[in-house]
Amino acid sequence: MKRDHQDICGADGGGYGNSSGSKGESSITSKGKLWEEDQDAGDMDELMAVLGYKVRSSDMADVAQKMEQLDMAMGTAQEDGISHLAYDTVHYNPSDLSSWVQSMLTELNNPVLPNSDSNSSKPQQHQQIVSSNQSQVYNDDSEYDLRAIPGIAAYPQPKRIKTSMETDSSSSTTEPSTQPVVLVDSQEAGVRLVHTLMACAEAVQQENLKLADALVKHIGLLAASQAGAMRKVATYFAEALARRIYGVYPQDSLHPSYTDMLQMHFYETCPYLKFAHFTSNQAILEAFATSNRVHVIDFGLKQGMQWPALMQELALRPGGPPVFRLTGIGPHQPDNTDALQQVGCKLAYLAETIGVKFEFRGFMVNSLADLEPKMLDIRPPEVETLAVNSIFELHRLLARAGGIEKVLSSIKTMKPKILTIVEEEANHNSPVFVDRFTEALHYYSSLFDSLEVSGVVPPSSQDLVMSESYLGRQICNVVACEGVERVERHETLAQWRSRMKTSGFSPAHLGSNAYKQASMLLALFAGGDGYRVEENDGCLTLGWHTRPLIATSAWQVAATE
Amino acid sequence: MAQNHHRGCHRRNHQETVGETEEKRSKFFINDHADILIEILKRLDGRSLCVAASVCRLWCAIARNNSLWENLCFRNVSPPTSSVRSVVLALGGYKRLYVGCVRPVRSLLGRVRRASMARDEVQLSLSLFCVDYYERLGGRNSNGRLVGESSPSSLMFLCKPVNV
């Protein structure tokens, strides 16, 4: 009912549309039944009939489209003398909508006006828009037919008309006049963009690099017509595809402090890292409940942003804080600066301020698989409670054979009370390139969408750009790299679960405290309505709308018989 | 409060003009009784407290009193332990905690708040407060001396967003 009413009142420009709508409404209240009796047997649309219009069901789509064209035409030429349509034109049988709309359109195209010379060009252009839109809507070219794609991309008819309309009409009508045209165009281009991206991935998988190259160029063109998240995602994916096609694999040679800085901006702009830190900390706190000496091994210390909150909770624990020892793992620094030590000093300063006894050690390794438990000075469980924490680090081990197995068995020998893992909730490790590509496209689209909404005040575009750059590097790695270079081998929670279970770990459920705290944290973010915390069999996932994006899980060493 | 002050002045003037019958009545000047003033100010909300701080120098000094802001932070929640107090004071004080964390958290969560959440709100605010302190530390060397710049932006997300 609502849809039809909108169609009727769509012709807003002239006065006639509204009056006919109200006439329809009055007919509902007084003579609804009467109109229904006038219907042909089952042929007329019932809903329209109740409003007083006779439209064949088979004609509905056609009539709707013509109404749209009429609306556009009236909207665009508001100031330029189509008022005659409201007053001078004779309308024959307006209840027969399809013929009425047709007559209105022909009136527009062949207006009888005193000053028709300057305006006559317009209706011809409207007609042209109409036909080009129709051709865009009904043109069903296969994405593998390369000839078809340049045809549309090189045929920017709506855009050309837009510019000529701008020169004709006054500036005040430019805004409303160009809007309908752009909307249809960008929606169409959006769908085409996704199809082209998929086609390019297919071409790359089939090693048809010539086709892939041509498609990549078109992605660039199409991406330019989009706005916001879609454009950015498409640009990053296009760049990654181009790198793969040309064999320009990105080296992971950026200074780690630069990548740390990118991650800091990502930390500021959106809640994913904060969620990871707070939920892991909650699990660790519960494991540390009764101990007087505690030890945390952090597989990726970075800037140490996770630990101030944990130290504060330990400091305010009833019964006083335990002795807190932190071992931070990080990559080698190219210029031999000891970044880990700097972070350790900062944390030590904080610990002293809030009254927690603190010890720190840092280890620089190229890969977690290089760690040996005896290096880490693990003390027996009766003396010291151990927690191992890994935030977005474990998936990197999947690049080398045997890596993850070695690390998991090392962890088991350390006998931690709890192991907290946060990983991306997506399968970007499929051996089939197209599957990986599709998954990544959907995943990063959701991620970029959420970034778009959670704008920080003051709108710091620098933060946003840095966060996007942080994600862009991941995209590049997933799409363009192979072999040991491809470290962003994300896997789903289900995959990690089965891996952990076969390696001898049993799940530890995250309690309701973690859930409550996470929900509260998310409510603080702009766009808080879009974020979803969900409990998944003892694990917590954070997602954007219906799509879970990261998952926190906690594990303990399974008791052996 | 300001009215009391005024009334005190008027009464004095009135006394001077009226004469001996008024001499026996005791003069009450709120600024002479700082403890009563504090008790009254304790019951104000954050905004009024800031306004009260602009009344005069004495009130400004009193309004900076940590116990006033502590009351604001822990309103509707059981009073904090001494360990909480020492931690908060070390991290920058209750006024900073209230203005930087507790107030924005309460206003952002306002629409979904339930009474039981008050304690959790304060705890979350404390954690965010600590993270913010850590970020403001900047780089430190092993002597605890400041060597690098700080980037105080962790609490930016608590500011109300612009509606686009």
Automatic annotation (TrEMBL), chain A:
Residues 263-328 are annotated as: VHIID. Residues 480-556 are annotated as: SAW. It is found in: Nucleus. One of its GO terms (biological process) is gibberellic acid mediated signaling pathway. Residues 1-32, 111-137, 158-180 are annotated as: Disordered. Its main location: nucleus. Coiled coil: none annotated. The keyword Translocase does not apply. Residues 45-111 form the Transcriptional factor DELLA N-terminal domain. Keywords: Gibberellin signaling pathway, Nucleus, Repressor, Transcription, Transcription regulation, Ubl conjugation. Transcriptional regulator that acts as a repressor of the gibberellin (GA) signaling pathway. Probably acts by participating in large multiprotein complexes that repress transcription of GA-inducible genes. Belongs to the GRAS family. DELLA subfamily. The DELLA motif is required for its GA-induced degradation. This is DELLA protein. It comes from Hibiscus syriacus (Rose of Sharon).
Automatic annotation (TrEMBL), chain B:
GO terms for cellular component: SCF ubiquitin ligase complex. Residues 1-20 are annotated as: Disordered. GO terms for biological process: gibberellic acid mediated signaling pathway; regulation of gibberellic acid mediated signaling pathway. Residues 1-13 have a biased composition (Basic residues). Pfam families: F-box-like. CDD domains: F-box_AtGID2-like. Residues 35-72 form the F-box domain. Signal peptide: none annotated. InterPro entries: F-box-like_dom_sf, F-box_dom, SNE/GID2. This is F-box protein SNE. It comes from Hibiscus syriacus.
